[in-house]
Give the backbone structure.
Amino acid sequence: MGPVGRPGRRFEEIRDAGTADGPFPTMSKTKAAASSAAPAPRLKLGLPKGSLQEATLEKFAKAGWNISVSSRSYEPYVDDPELQIRLIRAQEIGRYVALGYLDAGLTGVDWIHENGVAGEVHEVGEFVFSKATRQPTRWVLAVPEESDIRTVKDLQGKRIATEVVGMTRRWLRKHGVKAEVEFSWGATEVKARELVDAIVDVTETGSSLRANKLRIVDTLLVSTPRLVANKAAWKDPWIRSKIETIALLLKGAIEAEIKVGLKMNIREKDLPNLLQSLPSLRNPTVSGLSQSGWVAVETIIDEPVVRELIPRLKAFGAEGIIEYPLNKVVY
């Protein structure tokens, strides 16, 4: 039995038919096109690994970047092809940014000063958050409750344990005090009674120090996270624009954490009294409703005042009051 249809053309004929202007480019031309295409730009961003890691990734998620961390790699996945994330100890990020290994990084201002790179990086913005609260962290001088040390002058000739040796030595020099400062690899609180006379340690609330029966004598530095950029990278328009976008949305996400939105309806005749009596509603959005004589009011306020504000809104005649959370507040 003969063939049902006509024999197909040879591969060479099909290939040649499409190489001039047709849809079948040759392998060599495909490779040439791919090799000539410039690689997409990527921003190499350092984020803190360790105690601040969870809070940082949470803030970035609210800002719009979902980052997944694998225990097998220090390069997490991020749903942005223009970003290359590196998880690095906060103590080292400022130095790597200054050296140009990272285009930008998020680290505490304490470690920027401890590494002596404050003048070698460009500070893009400050972000007030910590691992447990929205309070800044503090580096404090602490001693046992029963210690005779009351001021920095009482440290003359004493021994101090800390992770921030440079910062502590500079602080002592500033006050004209000579003392021995040794590096602490961790568990600094437990050394204060038996091994050293005092410690310089970081705290948010002071609860850990109190639990170890330690007393704060003085504060050396109040620290908050800072987004810093390599000075040479900052001059690149694309890199600068990308960093500024991250800073804008990250700040908006952090601002939104302490605020909520409120919507309500109120009679138009009652609106002036409402606005005059409630300073939080100085600049609300007011729009008319289909029902004549009524308006809708929408505003953003600090969340802690809501429990006191809603009963007052009701007293002024507001109805249908809705409170809702916010993802970002960008000013």
